[in-house]
Amino acid sequence: MAGRGLYVATLLTGLLECLGFAGVVFGWVSLVFVFKAEHYFKELCEPNAGLLGNATEQAAEVCKAQDQRFSLIFTVASFMNNFMTFPTGYIFDRFKTTVARLIAISLYTSATLIIAFTSASSAVLLYLAMPLLSVGGILFLITNLQIGNLFGKHRSTIITLYNGAFDSSSAVFLIIKLLYEQGISLRASFIFISVCSTWHVTRTFVLMPRGHIPYPLPPNYSYGLCSGNCPTKQEKTAEPENRELQSKEFLSPKEEIPGPGQQQKPRSFWSYVLSRRFAWHLLWLSVIQLYHYLFIGTLNSLLTSLAGGDRAIVSTYTNAFAITQFFGVLCAPWNGLLMDKLKQKYQKEAKRTGSSTSMVALRSAVPSLTLTSLLCLGFTVCASVPVLPLQYATFILQVVSRSFLYGSNATFLTLAFPSEHFGKLFGLVMALSAIVSLFQFPIFTLIKGPLQNDPFYVNMMLILATLLTFVHPFLVYLECRLPKGSPSAVA
Predict the structure, then answer these.
(1) Average pLDDT for residues 249-267, to the nearest whole number?
(2) Where are the transmembrane segments (predicted)?
(3) Overall fold of domain 10-43+56-216+272-480
(4) Which of 52, 146, 249, 465 is the most exposed place for a label (fewest CB within 10 A)?
């Protein structure tokens, strides 16, 4: 297999990998349902002999400690999913694709085997297994995002498609839940997932490069089986030329016109990290992501409360939530398609007006960033209304918002900063946003404790914080309207 056929095979198998494995940790609400059926942390729900109220209210009250334990596990796992993207992004940049993928496979397989052989008596091992699962999954995503470079003008569409597949993979835990209800044990399901690691290994050596996929793509670029038998000459010779093109693409308008006899110096990684552009993007991602994580981590508890402890109703809404997650892979590409079309349109305008190439690329991200904030605002408002049927609308808005969030994040980083820093910048922004995501556990504890299960004030604060995220696309829009020769806000 060579040429275009190899590229298509890489694209499709990468999509399958992200869809089936990368983001399964975010199907946590389905897995919690199974863990509760298996009596994980059930010892925390011992009935209180002095409590004489309604039986349903008693169960909801006494099992608060169990819910907090599951919430804490998800908090740790989601934190590690983001925080570890910085060191794993560095590993990907420094040691390249093969090493990064072998590490991902090792972590992922260890996690699935631990879950397979845990029981109610060893439930504490979930604190180890779920973070390993999330870190392995995000490494799968990072190594696959570069596949967008193979398809030129469709790059943003493919990046967002992969992020959508990452979101949709949370439906895998729904499948495990449904199989469990049909008599298939949790152990059997996770052993099967562990065996699938042989497919990951095969794909690593057959359909992925040893190094990085360059952008722009050089003519007759090849990888995979050839890289095991011949030197990666094309990759090495292409890199200096590509990096020179990339560094020119991401210069500010002022930097694009060096003075006579001046040598243009490449900007350092930390100069981008300390820029206003990066800071506002970090705030934008952190706020929106925090509410998504809080919602996923507390959904089982929320549904139990709204359903009055009725297990059948909780199961129905849990299934509905997980099913909507699957459609993230269908929602995300529309975001990338929008950005690709806008970029092509603005490039045509730039040829007529002589606009900066970097600003043309960046301008195409503004509608995506704005739309993501708007979707999150709608999701936050719906989730704040304690009406059970309305949660169907919440589920739909949540999956669309989340699929746009991570697609917009990855694509913005590729458009706003040089691609040789992508792994590090992607990892750093996810790592720093992970620190903010840790607030989900104290927020959950605050709701369950001092606020007596009434999240009204917390929801109002989160709605206000979501409104703040609109500042980021507004500033990017203003930056793109700067006249040629003006200092760029990236500095």
Answers:
(1) 48
(2) 6-34, 72-92, 98-117, 124-147, 278-296, 316-339, 360-386, 392-413, 425-444, 456-478
(3) Growth Hormone; Chain: A; (1.20.1250)
(4) 52
253-276 residues labelled b (16+ CB within 10 A) or e (exposed): bebbeeeeeeeeeebebeebbebe
Tens digit of pLDDT for each residue in 228-252? 444 444 444 444 445 444 444 444 4
Going by C-beta distance under 8 Å and a sequence separation of 6 or more, which residues neighbour residue 466?
Answer: 287, 288, 291, 373, 376, 377, 380
Type of residue numbered 71: S
Q: Is the peptide bond before 216 cis (omega within 30 degrees of 0)?
A: yes
Q: How far apart are CA 425 and CA 89, in angstroms?
A: 8
Those residues with Cβ within 8 angstroms of residue 374's Cβ, 6 or more apart along the chain or in another chain: none
Tell me the pLDDT tens digit for each residue of 372-401: 999 999 999 999 898 999 999 999 999 889
User: 16 or 455: whose pLDDT is higher?
Assistant: 16
Indicate the residue type of 362: L
pLDDT at 56 over 90: no
Q: Which two tokens stand for residue 129?
A: 């297994």
Q: Per the structure block, which two tokens stand in for 447? A: 């709701």
Please state, in angstroms and rounded to a whole number, the distance separating the CA atoms of residues 486 and 256: 11
Domain locations along the chain? 10-43+56-216+272-480
Q: Which residues contact 214 (CB under 8 A, 6 or more apart)?
A: 149, 221, 235, 238, 239, 242
